[in-house]
Amino acid sequence: MTSFEDMDRRLTEMPAVLARELHAAMQTSLLLIEADARQNAANDTGRLAGSITSQITGEGLNLIGQVGPSVRYGENVEYGRRVGAKAPPVDALMGWIRRHPRPGPHNRSQRSQAFALARSISRRGIRARPFLAPAYHKNRAAIIAAFERVGARVVAHLRGRAL
Questions:
Q1: Among residues 29, 32, 52, which one has the least CA distance to residue 41?
Q2: 135 partner at 20 to 30 Å CA-CA among 9, 42, 121, 161?
Q3: In whole angstroms, how far apart are CA 114 and each of 20, 80, 138?
Q4: Domain extents in the chain
């Protein structure tokens, strides 16, 4: 194959190479964030940390990477809950009440304790305990470096060299 034919082949392959390299950089970035977010997540049962996953949607240059928990309360843990917000459902708090028994002054039932907790959350809010944002910030430099390497890998491909 002549030099021109070889260069023409590499140019033809370039969109696929670029897409593959971008996908790999995105996957690396998401896994870094996911791992640290799992470590940072508040741990009562491990359910929040265990629900943190990542996914890539789109293709080519239009990739979207997402990392986050699948449990509904993850947003309340990350951002907190404002004072005066609607109380959480009492049934959603029953498991927490069972795992963290607190004897009340009148030996209240677990359901009444959960109701009191829901009311307290509505009145006082919940402070934020971020786990995703710190994971991103911790890995920001590595993420930028992963995407910077994409350019070097594409240029290496065009030059006929592998990185």
A1: 52
A2: 121
A3: 50, 19, 36
A4: 1-80+127-163, 81-126
Q: Are 132 and 33 in contact (CB under 8 A)?
A: yes
Which residue type does 109 have?
Answer: S
pLDDT digits (tens, 9 = 90+) for 26-67: 999 999 999 999 999 988 999 999 999 999 999 888 999 999
Q: Label residues 108-137 b or e (16+ Cβ within 10 Å = b).
A: eeeeebbbbbbeebbeeebeeebbbeebbe
Closest by CA position to 88, among listed 71, 103, 100, 101: 71
Structure tokens at 28: 């690396």
